Amino acid sequence: QGQLVESGGGLVQTGGSLRLSCEPSGRTFKNYAMGWFRQAPGQEREFVAAISWGGNRTYYADSVKGRFTISRGNAANTVYLQMNNVKPEDTAVYFCIADLYKVPLTSQAYDSWGQGTQVTVSS
To answer: What is the pLDDT confidence band of residue 26, given thresholds at 50, 70 and 90?
Structure first.
């Protein structure tokens, strides 16, 4: 059974940029819709962005719209989250998820998550 591995997190100043990557390990997720979620300490995991399996449809939480961009790599097997103009409230652990049947828009539909990657935005 394959899994997804998130990377690219780190410490960044307010207004800066980061690019997160989500890569498969053990199998391909090329035909899957993919999504990014995040969880801040003491808070519920929340939706950030998602992309259809073909890459032609994208979805964003209102809180990140206009600042974050989700995209698929050339092989469509890797998904990126370009984070621009980050804010302290973007501080969280970021997770990616794959779904063969629907675009992942809600975290409650999934019970298996990877390690995530920590993003910390300093003010």
So the answer is: confident
